[in-house]
Specification:
single chain, 98 residues, mainly alpha, 2 helices, globular
């Protein structure tokens, strides 16, 4: 569990990669998943000495805009470029939706 709450997509991704790099020993993988829990909707949080409020706010704004676009035009209206025309569905990470 993290010491401080996070709510930005890019930060969740960064932490997942950090854990993967730390614990994966090179063995074959069949499935890799990332879950988040214990959501906190507080609008304010304590910054660490290494955080910048400006960068965090820009990322939160970006996440909000992406969510608004997906609500209005559908889940696949906007996605990361790495998923465009690729074999992995962008929102399911390769899992079946059913």
């Amino acid at each position: 569990k993290l010491e401080a709450p996070i709510d930005e997509t890019s930060e969740i991704y960064r932490r997942a990669v950090e854990l993967f790099d730390r614990y994966w020993k090179g063995e074959p993988l069949r499935l890799l998943g990332v879950t988040v829990s214990d959501f906190d909707r507080e609008e304010e949080h304590q910054l660490s000495l290494f955080e910048t409020a400006e960068g965090d706010e820009k990322n939160r704004d970006l996440d909000r805009v992406v969510d608004q676009i997906r609500r209005k035009y559908g889940d696949e209206a906007i996605m990361r470029g790495t998923f465009a025309n690729g074999p992995i569905p962008p929102l399911t990470g390769g899992t079946r939706e059913d």
